[in-house]
Design brief:
Layout lengths: L3 H12 L5 H13 L1 H19 L7 H13 L10 H23 L12 H4 L3 H11 L2 H13 L4 H7 L2 H15 L4
Helix pairs in contact: 1-3, 2-3
Length: 183
């Protein structure tokens, strides 16, 4: 059985004949048993009949003039001049505008862009490589390598070129341990 809510939602469709025959039959059966829906449906039918008749009189010019006069007499300003809002508004609006402008300019992101670039990519440019390595190499490190190189009985560059990367790592580790350098 359909509920009163469904019946109220379907009233306009019933008046305009847009319900299926089954729904119309259910609608009619419900109206026979529900006086509240009967009364509401009767009101809808009355309104719909008047709207369909289209014979509602249009008021004359005097009606519209009187209505306009009533509206103007009842006009209430946004704020009354004697209220605290009326005194505060002319000051608060410019102060708020200045605050918004300051907030926008003070919270802007920096104009420089910070990029993280691996050192290996920088080393491809000789000038940048020189600057980078000069910043990384300290006097203590140069002194440590000088001590290691002087303690070797052979040319270090030639020997390192002939070694594999694993052999180089082992060699440097042994040299560091034996000479106590770089620890």
């Amino acid at each position: 059985m359909k509920t009163c809510k469904w019946i109220r939602d379907a009233m306009i469709d019933r008046i305009e004949g847009e319900l299926s025959s089954t729904d119309s039959e259910v609608f009619d059966i419900h109206l026979e048993t529900c006086s509240a829906c009967q009364q509401e449906f009767a009101r809808y039918e009355k309104i719909y009949t008047r709207l369909q008749a289209d014979d509602m009189p249009v008021p004359g010019a005097s009606f519209w003039d009187a209505l306009l006069l009533r509206i103007r007499q009842q006009h209430v300003p946004f704020y009354a001049k004697s209220s605290w809002i009326g005194r505060l508004l002319p000051v608060a609006v410019p102060v708020l505008a200045v605050g918004v402008v300051l907030f926008i300019f003070l919270t802007r992101p920096p104009s420089t862009i910070q990029m993280i670039v691996p050192v290996s990519e920088l080393l491809e440019d000789e000038d940048i490589a020189a600057i980078t390595l000069n910043a990384m190499v300290h006097d203590d490190l140069v002194e440590d390598f000088t001590i290691i190189e002087e303690s070797l009985p052979f040319d270090i560059d030639e020997a390192l070129n002939e070694m594999t990367s694993g052999e180089r790592e082992l060699f440097l580790k042994l040299m560091t341990e034996s000479n106590g350098v770089g620890i």
